Amino acid sequence: MKARLQSLPYGLRLLLATLSLGIGTGLVGIACHYLLESVQWLAFGQASSDLLQQFQEAGGLRRFLVLCVTGCLAAGFWYVLQRRYKLQSIRKQIDLVGNTDPVPLPHLLHAVMQIVIVGAGASVGKEAAPREVGALIGGRLAKAFFLTVKERKVLIACGAGAGLAAVYQVPFASSLFVFETLGLAYSWQNILLVLASTYLANWIVQPIVGHDVLYHLSAVSWSLSSFLQAMLIALLVTPLALVFRSLAKQANRKRCKDETILWALPLVFLVLGSLVSFFPIFMGNGQVLAQALLSRQPVPYLPLALAMKGLLVYLLLHNGAYGGTLTPSFALGIGAGYLVTLLLTVVGVHLDPALGMLLGATVFLGTTLQAPLTAIALSLGFAGQDWSLTIPLVLAAGMSYVIRKRWEKKQ
After folding, report:
1. Domain residues for 22?
2. How far apart are the C-alpha atoms of 247 and 240, rounded to whole Å?
3. Radius of gyration of the chain (CA)
4. How far apart are CA 113 and CA 136, in angstroms?
5. Per-residue confidence at 1, pLDDT binned at 50, 70, 90?
6. Do 13 and 5 contact (CB within 8 A), yes or no?
7. What's the predicted TM-score (pTM) here?
8. What pairs with residue 324 in β-bridges?
9. Within the chain, what is the greatest distance between any pair of CA atoms?
10. Are residues 295 and 338 part of one domain?
11. Same domain? 239 vs 129
């Protein structure tokens, strides 16, 4: 078998590895979907199309107990896992290609636990797990097909993008993510490899997950006044996003991995459980909060709610949990954009709250991901909006980019 593969033309081996990666990450997306739904069904009872309703019907005591038990299990799991194995981030996997390969089993178990805590209601994103598994598959396939170190790095990055596409059904945004966030060089070959793997993964997962957008929002339009709204939101929301990004980076850098995790992480889950026993809107990765705002449901004390949501993400990551910040960033951006639009209304400037939320999400995502183009595509893809909205979103993302770069120069 080894001799047969090596005898194939290099271009064919690269193509076969890419197609295998798209299929593999699509299957990972399906597995993540079923795992998340199974955890939510086991933890909170009968599934509902309305996630907030499912959490509410479970009752406050059940939400509290689920999170307390999850916190204890997660703390013990990650303490043992990290004592025995060294987990490699996607960036580390790319940097160490040709020197050290990640051990598959602990990374797979690590990803499973991330999905489990999100399903149980933890305030972190679910996208990190499929990205990491996709990168792992990309590296293994590239090595199995005897690709060069250069192409192995490309396939690891493609796997991360395909994993994101599979779990959120946003292949174009996921392709941009690979280039902007992971820093893959722009070339015709790389573009084709990224597009092939992300769109194939998305196609594989669609029969199971469906074609529905992640967030339901009626069609949003824009006018000349939207440019003023875009500039003001970029000016006011970007500093908030910079603070959140700084806290998240600090939490990841100083994450508890020693014995401290055995009491610190359960304590954070205890605090979260106590909070959501009264306020279920704080449950999960931010999807519930974002959908409530997009549906114009009242969220009392919204500034405090957003600050609390951001703090919970920081506390979980700092005290030993793993997970993404993409969905929490989207929710915080939705809320921040909505708040700015409401403040403008107070001073007599009446603008569209729905557009304000999308602008806020774009600015927040662009800042935390350091990827303005990805942020635009994600905001439109998540909410199923027309690409004509790109014009005000580009203005907001561009202005936010300038503010971020000026801030970074002063650091």
Report:
1. 1-209
2. 11
3. 21
4. 16
5. low
6. yes
7. 0.93
8. 125
9. 74
10. yes
11. no
Judgement on whether residues 305 and 175 belong to the same structural domain of the protein: no
pLDDT in tens, 114-158: 999 999 999 998 889 999 999 999 999 998 888 888 999 999 999
**Total structural domains within the chain:** 2
List Cβ neighbours of 42 (8 Å cut-off, separation of 6 or more). Answer: none
- For range 187-200, the mean pLDDT: 95
Are 17 and 197 within 8 A, CB to CB?
Answer: no
**Angle at CA 191, nearest 5°, toward 108 and 383?**
70
Residue 80 phi, psi dihedral angles, 5° rounding: -65, -45
Domain assignment present for 271: yes
Structure tokens at 400: 């936010």
Residue 57 has pLDDT above 90, yes or no: no
DSSP string, 263-288: HHHHHHHHHHHHHHTT-GGG-TTSHH
pLDDT at 2 over 70: no
- End residue of a domain, out of 160, 177, 209: 209
CA distance 221 to 354: 9
Residue 210 CA to its chain's centroid (Å): 19
Does 48 have pLDDT greater than 70?
no
Residues 35 and 167 in one domain: yes
Least confident span in 53-57, 236-240, 363-367: 53-57
- Asked if 147 and 279 sit in the same domain, the reply is no
Does 198 share its domain with 228? Answer: no
Question: Hey, what are 279's tokens?
Answer: 């306020």
188: domain CATH number is 1.10.3080.10
> Does residue 219 form part of some domain?
no
Residues 190 and 328 in one domain: no
Q: Do residues 31 and 174 both lie within one domain?
A: yes
Report the 10 Å Cβ neighbour count for 188. Answer: 7
